[in-house]
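ARCHIVE CARD
SHELF: 3
SLOT: left
DATA:
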Amino acid sequence: MYLSDFLNISLNSSIDDIKAAFRCSKAYLWLCDVLKKHNNEMYFGSISERLHEILVNDPKPYRKEIKELQQNLLNWIVELGMETITIDSPNYSQRIVLKQVVFK
C-alpha cells in the first residue's frame, strides 16, 4: 500500500522518509522555484495565478479546483513540518515564504 501516488512510499515509512520523498516531488519543487523567482515570498492568490497558468488541461481547471490543489500542497508542508517554507497569515491571505535555498 502506498501513502501517495505522487510520493510512491509505503504507509509504514518514517516521517524522515516521507519528508525526503515530498522534498523531491514535482509539486514541492515547483513551489520552491516559484518562490525563488519572486524574492522568496508570495501570497496565496499570486501562487494560485501561477498554478492556473501552468495547468493546461482541456478544459482548463476551475479556479476553485486550483485553490484546492494549492491548499492541499500547503497542508502537506505544514503537516510535515517542512523547514524550508513558512506559511503565515499577516492579514487575511496566507503568505508563503521560502526560508532557504532548495537544491534539486
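SLOT: right
DATA:
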Amino acid sequence: MNRREDADLPVFDAASLAEQRLAENTITIVVGPYPAADRRESAHGRSFGARLDEAVGLARAIDLSIAHAEIATLKALRPATYIGTGKIEALKAIIAEKEARLLLVDCALSPVQQRNLEKALAIKVIDRTGLILEIFGRRARTREGALQVELAHLAYQKSRLVRSWTHLERQRGGFGFLGGPGETQIEADRRLIQERMRRIEKDLEGVKRTRGLHRSSRDKVPFPTVALVGYTNAGKSTLFNRLTRAEVLAKDMLFATLDPTTRVVDLPHGKRIILSDTVGFISDLPTMLVAAFRATLEDVVEADVILHVRDIAHEDAEAQGADVRAILTDLGIDATQQGRLLEVWNKADLLPEAERERLDAVSRLSAGDGSRPVLVSAVTGEGIDRLLAAIEARLTLDHSRHTLRLDAGDGAGLAYAYESAEVMARREAEDGSVELSLRVAPERVGRLLRRFGEALTEA
C-alpha cells in the first residue's frame, strides 16, 4: 500500500490532529479471516493477499500504526467468535509480543462476536464496518457529510450497545473505538440514540432541500453535468484537480474525498460542463453507509456523463471496476446506456512501458465518439486532452455538423454563430469571407436556419 503520494497531507483541525497523534501511537494488528471456500470460488474476484492489503490501507487511512498483518484461512465460521480457538491463542501471543492495543478484523462481526473476541483477547476489536465508519468520520467536512456519517454510526452502535458513542459527546466523527467515553464500556441508551437519529434525519432533509435548490439553480445554467466515480484511491480527486486546476484534497490513501465538490470546466471547443467529484466506492461497503450517502451520490444519478476512473495499474483493477459497476446498478444507473458511462484508465505513469503502450493502443481504437476507454495520468497530464475531447464527443452524440459561409464584415452573424453553436474550424478566404464548421445541438438547428437560411448547409 506504500504507493506514490499525490499531494501533501491534509490540514486537520485541532480535534483531528489529536486523533491522528492518538492513532499513530495505537499499535494495531490486522487479520483477514477469509473462508477457504472463497479461494475456490474466487470470491470478490480478489486474492486473499489483495484483500488483506486493502484492509491495511484502510487502517493506514486513519494513521493507525500497523505492527502485524496476516491472513487466517477459515475452514468454518465460528458463531461465537468468527475465528477458531487456535487462531485466538496465536493472536494472543502476537498481541503480547507487539504490545498491540487494537485488533482489526477484515470482516463484518456480529455484536456478540465482537464482544467475545474483546474478552478473549483483552484488547479492543473493530471490524471492517466499524473501521470504514471511522474513516468516514475523519474525512467528512461539510455539514451534510458529518450528519450522514453520524447517522450511519448511530445505526451501527444501536445494534451493539457495548459502549457509549463519542459522537453524542463531541458531535463529530472519528475514533469512537480508541478513546473518550467509549472506554467506559457503559451501556448506550437506545432511546437517546433513536431520538438523535430522528433529529439527524430531519436535519438531513433540510440539507437535501438546500442541495436540491442548488441543483435547480445549476439546471437553469445550460451546462451539462459530468460526475467522477471510481473505486477508492483510483485518483479521482487528482484528476479533478488536473481538469479544474482546483485544490481538492488528493492523497494516496483510501477515502480521501467524502464530500461532493463541483467546478466548471471548459471543453476544447468552448462548451462548458459542471464537473463533480464524489466519494470513492469500495467492496463490502456497509449497507448503512450506502443508504446514508445516497444524497451525496445524487450528482452521479443526475449526471449527463459519468467518468468511471480506474486505477489501471492496480493488480485488482478488474475486480474494482466490477464493484463500481455493481454499485452504479444499485443506484439505478444503466452503465450500458449509449454515451452515459466513459471509462478513464488512470495512473498510466505507474504502468510498465510495454503495458502502457498496449493499453494506449487499445484506447485509441475509437471512432471518435468517445466509445473507448481513455488512458491518462492525472499526475503527469498524459491523455488529458484526449479525455476532454472524449467527454465532448459523448455530450454531442446527437449533434449535427453544418457549414456556414458568411460575407466579409458580417460581425453580427459571426458572433451569433459562436454563441449558438460550437465552432470546430474556421477558414478565411482572400476576399474576407469566412467559412465555419459547426457542431449544433438539435434544439438550435432551427434557430440557425432561420437566421442564416441557405448560407447554412449540412456538412
